[in-house]
Amino acid sequence: MMTLNVVKVLVEEALRRARGRRLKRVLVGRYALVVLDDGRAGLAYVDWDWVKPFRPYESPPLDAEEAVELALSYDPVKAAIGVATINALAPMDGVTEKDPLDLLSLSGETRVGLIGYIRGYVRRLQGKVRLFVFEFKPYEEDFVYPWYAEEEMLPEMDIVIATGVTVVNKTINRVVELTRGDLVLVGPSTPMWPAALGGHRGALGGSVVSDLDAVVRMIELGYGADQMLRSRALRKVTLWVP
Known about the structure:
There is one protein chain. 43% of the residues are buried. This protein has 242 residues and is of the alpha/beta class. It contains 9 helices and 10 strands. The protein has helices at 6-18, 64-69, 76-89, 119-125, 150-153, 165-168, 172-178, 212-220, 225-230, and strands spanning 23-28, 31-36, 41-45, 111-115, 130-135, 144-146, 159-163, 182-186, 202-209, 234-241. Helices cover 29% and strands 24% of the residues.
């Protein structure tokens, strides 16, 4: 059975909006920032652990279509620039400022699988649902499982929550395949395109740049998304996908 390639679908959709568009600015720190010719901007996380230290220098493309296609790359910087371009091109129709968790039906019996120890969501969900966290590194809590437990346990979850970084590193394709219930993507890397959920019902909890100058300064100084959100340079937005 062929696995749905969510990233390829996102690229195909974004390419239609990218025609004739140009990139005004590209900046890479802990996040990649892409600013389009109309001033709209998008972010995506850069996994520096996988950046080759002696990779040859390449200038990022200024053509938006070329930049979108970088999302298919396994080079962490190129992939982040590609996803950031897709995020800058997102239509943003129907978004709300509600938190994704506020749009979900949760009870003490709801099985929620959290891919990665997303601290804010652990605090909000612990004790209120049946929580299962999947991580690359060990944590003390009994509800934290090794990442490879996802293969067996994700299909048992009523709701799966992952970060938009799964789009950058392509693991979204397997997450979509394993998920049987609702799917939620969160964080500034989240593409605000319904296709990002691979046909699942759920929510996209991304962000929009509200103060571009501040975001540029913070990326240049090596700050991450938490600081950008606290300073209100980024604003959280959510799209419910029925």
